[in-house]
Amino acid sequence: TTTPTVTWTASSSPDVMRYEFSLGTTSGDTDLAAWQSIDLNVSASETGLSLTLGTTYYINVRAIDTSENISSVETGFWEAQ
Predict the structure, then answer these.
(1) pLDDT at 32
(2) On the CB side of 73, how many CA atoms lie within 13 Å of its CA?
(3) Contact predicate 10/17, CB 8 Å
(4) What's the pTM value of the predicted model, to 2 decimals?
(5) How far is Cα 24 from Cα 33, in angstroms, rounded to an integer?
């Protein structure tokens, strides 16, 4: 069980209202953690995950603007060690 913390660079768009993140076992997937709003924070963590050593996991981040438009999803990954 682990609590990964991931940080990213804030959007340069002035109308970003919040960020959302999810976690999955493949790029863009949400099977470990569904989309969660984190306001304008540029880091996220999820507690209580049961990860398998040597397995690659993915964090997906998207921005939501003041008109509720959703940006494209940016995905990063890490390997459980």
Answers:
(1) 92
(2) 15
(3) no
(4) 0.87
(5) 7
Q: How high is the pLDDT of residue 57?
A: 93
Q: Is the pLDDT of residue 30 over 70?
A: yes
CA atoms within 13 Å, Cβ hemisphere of 78: 13
Token readout for 18 is: 């919040």
Q: Return the sign of the alpha-carbon dihedral for residues 53, 8, 46, 58.
A: negative
Residue 53 has which token pair?
Answer: 């050593």
Q: Which two tokens stand for residue 5?
A: 């913390």
Residues 6+ apart with CB under 8 A from 52: 80
Q: What is the pLDDT of residues 49-63, one digit of tens each?
A: 888 989 999 999 999
Q: What burial class does residue 8 get, using C-beta atoms within 10 Å of its C-beta: 0-12 exposed, 13-18 middle, 19+ buried?
A: middle
